[in-house]
Here is the input.
Amino acid sequence: MSARTAEPTSEKEASPVSGNIVVAGVGGQGVIMASNVIAQVLLDAGFDVKKSEVHGMSQRGGTVVSHVRFGHDVHSVTVEPGTADWVVAFEWEEGLRALPYLADEGVAFVSTERRLPPASMSDHRGGALAYPAADASPRGVVAIDTAAVAGDAAATRAAVAQTVLLGAVAARLPFPAEAWHTAIRSWVPPKTVEENITAFERGRAHKPASPTRLRQAPVVARPPALVSIEAAWCKGCNICVAVCPERCLELDRFDVAVFAHPERCTGCQLCSWLCPDLAIDVSYQAQEEHVHAAAGPR
Amino acid sequence: MIEAAPTEKRLLRLDMMPHMLCPGCGHGIVFDAMLRVLARRYETLDGVAFVAGIGCSSRVVGYVDSATMHTTHGRPLTFATGLKLARPDLKVIVVTGDGDGLSIGGNHLIHAARRNIDLTCVLFNNEIYGMTGGQLAPTTVPGAFTSTSPEGNHEEPFDAARLVEAAGATFVARAQSFRTRLFEEVFAEALDHPGFSFVEVLTDCTEYFGRTNHLGTGADLLFAQGREEPAVDADLATRPTLRPVPEKRTRPTLATGVLHRSRRSTLEEAMGLVGGAR
Amino acid sequence: MSTLQLVQGNEACALGALAAGCRFFAGYPISPSSEIAEALARALPRRGGVFIQMEDEMASLGAVLGAAMGGARAMTATSGPGFTLMQEHLGYASLAEIPCVVVDVMRGGPSTGLPTSPSQGDVMQARWGSHGDRATVVVAPASVQEVHDLTGTAFALAERLRTPVVVLFDEVIGHMREGVTLAAPPAGSAGRPVPGEPPGPSFRSAYRPNAEGVAMVPDFGRGYRFHVTGLMHDERGYPTSDPATVAALLERLERKTDAALDALPPERYRLEDATVVLIAYGITARMARAAVDVLRERGIPAGLLRPRLLWPVPVAALEEAIAPAELVVAAEMNRGQWSLEVERVAGRQVPLAPYLKAGGSIISVEELVEHVLAATREGVLA
Here is the structure.
């Protein structure tokens, strides 16, 4: 619908002659793999395809962006702001960050999954996060709860849920499902092929509500930072959870450590000593406060 | 909240946090332990300077609220040598990694040890180049897979502690990221030692070394250290490779604690920069 | 207070450094610069300074930069191959704005080349040897006296502009002995800029520039806690990759070196009515000056422009000297380096007949005169 088409025929039959796709997410989500799949489908369809990536020092948890441009003859390798026909974002904040790429008629498929990259928290100690004003967002943002759409396909490997987004994009592009299946088979690890294709098909069949404005999308509230854990610094490595002899700590659904069972804590400090993120403080004087803070409504 | 807490966090540049290390990275554990030792000795770090090279380990100095210098790849000891000689009043701590300190900067390491200049050098050894994407290091155990040893490493690693001792260091210790209390002890002793003090600390790269060699999560790697298990997964030998891994070996169980301690004139003493000669 | 002495060029460099307040030298032996290190190895400890021979040239400049961050006026000296090894740290010093003086006594290259023969082959290395768009300040003395004096100027510029300054001369000047008046350094060589605000827990402006565009970085260990990095950084000294911040930083680093142009204008010799303009620096300028006199005797209205600052290029002074010229002869001991800058400034309007000589021997007055006469005869002067 939004790619420049040869003739303004009906949406389904229109064959795009060129287009720009930006795939965004954080390290470890499979952004590169997904953009490889997209590029493969386009290449197999006979397009000239250019794909370039921004990653490297970002490491796991950092921003990864891949640009895919296709057409009969593509020169520039990167997508200029305001020219992307599709933005595919595997992560909610990365979706916001990538929105400036979107063309007026473009559509962004944004997963509601939240994986806060460390850099985005630099100036927001204590877990409070600022968001762009809702009305500043462009049109055409489709928020998809990828985990819910993927369902049991992502039961063993959470990352598979993001393949739903590929399906959502595929539904707007005039290439047969078989082409996508072939590309997926050639790029995802062999033992994850079936679950990825299941997730892809569920994404293709998914009928999102009409393009959602950002303010209608779920805004995830971060839990209040507990006294002893600097939530904004925690990268969810699970070490504290694993080393705590009393099993006091848990990761919440955002992979942030929480002091879930303060009543069991003996103050041994192992969690603090072995936290790679310097996020945990054990303070004996503040023990009472910990209990009260943790025992409050959550 | 954290600002008010009477902890080592007061020595951090809070506006730089959270740090850029990967989830589960052993470097963060060692860094925190360093700060705890320093927090027991210094209210603020005005009399201290940190000099680091290039790599994941070297990046930690940027988070310390002190005089911090992030120099060039392999050369932090050269900057530290000049700084210490020009300013013997400063306590100079050098942070380096196994690639930075033993490969590109190996020459400077042995010469700093030979000179017995009064520096404390902490070498974070994670057996890999993390910052550049998991390439082979001069400390990688034979057989281990890295992005530049796809058939398994064919080379023998340096024993950093023995190398530095042979070069003339007067204090040599080894610790692990898992046993943070041991690290704190030897780091504190290193700070007290007059002359070149060297602490090698074995840490884990979860994202590159751990993942590439099927070693599990950051917690798994830590527990393996605790059990003194081999640093390379036994199943690796059966992994399909271009050709078989030659003589599958693992990181040996290395002695930890203070490995060497002696006393001779420091460079500053010999030059008459300290001790009242001038 | 001044005394006339017979001094070797390399020794004069050491004496000039000491007079300018140099208190730290780190170096590695290399011909033909080693006498600078040897002289300072004797002199510095007696004056409360530090001399150290490092394990290589990278280490030498690294130690110099560490000492400079500690507050010392610091220097190293080397020759071509060692200068090559120092390039990464020259880039670091430029970006991190650490004052230092690097002396390069040029010898024939590439590679080990001609270790004991003169050359002017490092002119472009001094400009472009380190990667990236790096602003550079390079001075080129032409006599033993000037080696002494310009080494002092180099320290003054390095401190004021917080940038590495390269002193570039060659084997002949380094090993030549001449009568030198050892005067006190000129007044006005104030130290490095200091921060405008007191130290404190909220100090976050180590890389805030002063009016001259020079970052006011405190010395280490003076109560300020701050970060120094070879990464692109903001005014706090913290790493950044924000394109606008980085572009502004690079622009400022380049702009601040323009101050060197006013501090060290070129020497103009018999240029008032000259239509044949010779352009030469360093050892070559001495022969060019004599050649001007010979040419004048033969009725050719020759003059000499002698830049003492090679980088940044004194474009205005070059333009002024070239404007009335009917022939421009840039002479240098290489295959064409600074003469390319002359060509760039002159454009296509002025006939150019550069005299380039690489091979390890200096340019003689006779061959230069002959070259100019031939260029005139052959109708370059159309």
